[in-house]
Design brief:
Length: 101
């Protein structure tokens, strides 16, 4: 998990994403009893996202990860052996949660 988070932090440092927060069952591990999960959910701000557009293009993120040797498998990207699902911030509630995570 440490290496996976290092890759995600590098995405932010390199400007591929503009902030992120972990969500889903993995995030719950920090606050409640463990829950079974098979992936890590990462909510991200995308630099190319426009507030006026209903469509969010996550392709640049996937292309960057692919150039680093990480491959997509269905809705996940395998990063250091861990399936990661990137979820673009898509409404004001999630936007606020990611900003203050």
């Amino acid at each position: 998990m440490k290496k996976t988070l290092q890759v995600i932090n590098a995405l932010e440092r390199d400007g591929i994403i503009q902030g992120y927060a972990m969500g889903g069952a993995t995030a719950l591990l920090f606050y409640t009893e463990p829950a079974l999960t098979f992936d890590v959910d990462i909510f991200v701000f995308l630099p190319s996202a426009k507030k006026t557009s209903a469509l969010l293009d996550i392709a640049p993120l996937y292309k960057h990860l692919e150039s680093k040797g990480y491959r997509a498998e269905k809705e996940h990207v395998m990063i250091e052996g861990i399936p990661v699902q990137f979820l673009p911030v898509y409404n004001s509630l999630i936007e606020e949660a990611v900003k203050y995570a």
